[in-house]
Amino acid sequence: MTAPIIGFIGAGNMATSLIGGLLQKNMKPERIIASDPKAEQGAALSKQFQIRTVTDNAVLAAECDVLLLAVKPQVMQAVCRALPAERKPGQLVISIAAGISCDSLAEWLGDTTPIVRCMPNTPSLRGQGVSGLFATAAVSEAQKELTETIFNAVGISVWLEEENLIDAVIAVSGSGPAYFFYMIEAMIDAGEKLGLPRDTAERMALFTALGAADMAVNSDVDVAELRRRVCSPGGTTEQAIKTFQAEGLPQMVDHAMQAAAKRAAEMSKELA
Ligand SMILES: NC(=O)C1=CN([C@@H]2O[C@H](COP(=O)(O)OP(=O)(O)OC[C@H]3O[C@@H](n4cnc5c(N)ncnc54)[C@H](OP(=O)(O)O)[C@@H]3O)[C@@H](O)[C@H]2O)C=CC1
Ligand SMILES: O=C(O)[C@@H]1CCC=N1
């Protein structure tokens, strides 16, 4: 089978991460098309990745085997309704939007449309993405395999049995990179306050995050044990962790992730 043509509707942050990740995994640039109403947005992507870009979404609907909807949730209904009813035969639609249900997408696109909802994240750009996937009944086994091929090329993917678990995936991994970036920002600020030059604090915080994640991913023991191994009895880390506990870090993380999932559920109702 020839490689599928993937069309990205919306050439923003997440489309850029996915396209960059796919090209790094040897996907041919001529198999990717992106559309964005702003010609300059498309031109920038075209220059960066040598892919074809257009300003008319209907071109993608006619030519692509996979139509990947990567616009903001607030414009998704208008974008879907404006697509021509006649699209490339056998086309699979994948939506990466937070808070847009498969029922809404089916209503806007036609209820026999094979639809996959996916929640990826921006580290897909580096082949380190995490994607939660949910398929409607209209999606064939071959289309599920194609979906896995796309998202496994840019990281790991997990199929979900229930669509509402996408909201949990948003809270964990979709929004998750921002939590770690925020933690790193705070560590850089604190390191500078302790006297390190800012660029030194930045390099140390970044490589510590990278080293810790890499070690945890490749470890035989769980993260709690890895944490304990850094905490020498009566030592320094113990004091830092006690401070995190006393100031309620686990509860704060829980509240933040509940808020993210709650917002996703609210959006599904507001934007239906
Ligand atoms: N950012 C992230 O980390 C993640 C985002 N997502 C989801 O991905 C989707 C995109 O997010 P993100 O990439 O951050 O958003 P961006 O705003 O960066 O990208 C969306 C792009 O779509 C363009 N656009 C607007 N209207 C149309 C249209 N009618 N046709 C084609 N393109 C259009 C926008 O142009 P303009 O700027 O001019 O409006 C913009 O370039 C969202 O639904 C979000 O929920 C999912 C996982 C992670
Ligand atoms: O913040 C958002 O709504 C999107 C979805 C997950 C990450 N970014």
Automatic annotation (TrEMBL):
Name of the top EC class for this enzyme: oxidoreductase
Residue stretches in coiled coil: none
Domain called Pyrroline-5-carboxylate reductase dimerisation: residue spans: 163-267
Principal location class: cytoplasm
Keywords from the UniProt entry: Amino-acid biosynthesis, Cytoplasm, NADP, Oxidoreductase, Proline biosynthesis
Keyword Magnesium carried by entry: no
Record's catalysed reaction(s): L-proline + NAD(+) = (S)-1-pyrroline-5-carboxylate + NADH + 2 H(+); L-proline + NADP(+) = (S)-1-pyrroline-5-carboxylate + NADPH + 2 H(+)
InterPro entries, alphabetized: 6-PGluconate_DH-like_C_sf, NAD(P)-bd_dom_sf, P5C_Rdtase_cat_N, P5CR_dimer, Pyrroline-COOH_reductase
Ranges for domain Pyrroline-5-carboxylate reductase catalytic N-terminal: 6-99
Pathway participation: Amino-acid biosynthesis; L-proline biosynthesis; L-proline from L-glutamate 5-semialdehyde: step 1/1
EC numbers on record: 1.5.1.2
Keyword Nucleus recorded: no
Compartment(s) of residence: Cytoplasm
PANTHER family: PYRROLINE-5-CARBOXYLATE REDUCTASE, PYRROLINE-5-CARBOXYLATE REDUCTASE 3
Matches recorded under HAMAP family: P5C_reductase
Function: Catalyzes the reduction of 1-pyrroline-5-carboxylate (PCA) to L-proline.
Family from the record: Belongs to the pyrroline-5-carboxylate reductase family.
Protein name stated in the entry: Pyrroline-5-carboxylate reductase
Source organism (scientific name): Halopseudomonas sabulinigri
Classification lineage: Bacteria, Pseudomonadati, Pseudomonadota, Gammaproteobacteria, Pseudomonadales
